Amino acid sequence: MPNKNRREEIEKLIIDYLEKNRNSYYSLRDLTQLLPLRKHEHRELRDIMNSLKRDGKIILRNKQFGIKSSPQQKIVEGKFDAGSLVRGYSYAFVNNKNGDIFIDSEDISSAYHGDTVRVEIKYRRRGLLYGKVLKIVKRANDKLSGNIDAYQGRYYLVPDLARIHTTFDITDRGGAKVNDKVHLQIEDWGNREMNKRPRGKVIEILGTAGDTKVEELALIKQFELPLFFPDEVIAETEKLNDEVDENTLHNRKDFR
Fold first, then answer.
1. Would residue 98 be called left, alpha or beta, if left means φ above 0 and alpha means ψ between -120 and 50 degrees?
2. Which residues contact 133 (CB under 8 A, 6 or more apart)?
């Protein structure tokens, strides 16, 4: 792993080279041959290129890297809406203060519903804006509740949130089995262009899926709701008198 200064030097080498060749795209193998890199740095090139892509500094087209030739690039931020994806359509939207931006499924990167994303506006057609997700600015979730399922020996999570449009591979079940309701810590959001699936590890087994109390607990976990009242609230209730005085009753209506 190159140190911070050397990594910045490599990033500058990459950007400078691609800037000089704006209309060309290069594979990782091309770049290892074209750039003055040390042999042991070749292994780190993929990680550096993906980092530059996530930051919107370069783009990936047909597994080749480059810099977009158009100088009139417009970048905006908004909330990713995956509602259409979960209904089986091949597109999503980004909700921006100036209107919705249409995002083809090939251009969503690793965005999930509710994420704040940075989008490049590619073009306008028939009054609609079309764009591409460049970067995830802020995740809406870093944990998900859902059910454990399995297929051909591969365990995965089916999220409870209806607008999470994929399943998640499980790296560590923590003893959970199929049809358990669990809480998952997301470790990697995947990469559609590199055909990498999102994955995470089970951090809590909540119980059997379908049980009413377990489903309630899953909701509490998903939305980070408190399970208990704070100590100061409990202390305040203990000061209350169990009996209601006559003056208070006079101002009340009995609905029993």
1. alpha
2. 80, 94, 103, 107, 108, 109, 111, 117, 118, 119
Say if strands 128-138 and 116-125 run parallel, antiparallel, or are unpaired.
antiparallel
- The pLDDT of residue 2 is 65
Amino acid residing at 114: G
What are the average pLDDT values for consecutive 10-residue runs of the chain, which has 256 residues? 79 88 84 88 88 88 78 81 94 91 94 96 83 95 98 96 97 97 97 88 98 97 92 90 76 79
133 to 169, 182, 190, 227: CA distances (angstroms):
23, 30, 14, 37
Residue count (the chain): 256
108 contacts 133 by C-beta, under 8 angstroms: yes
Specify the pLDDT at position 67: 83
Give the tokens for residue 83: 């509602």
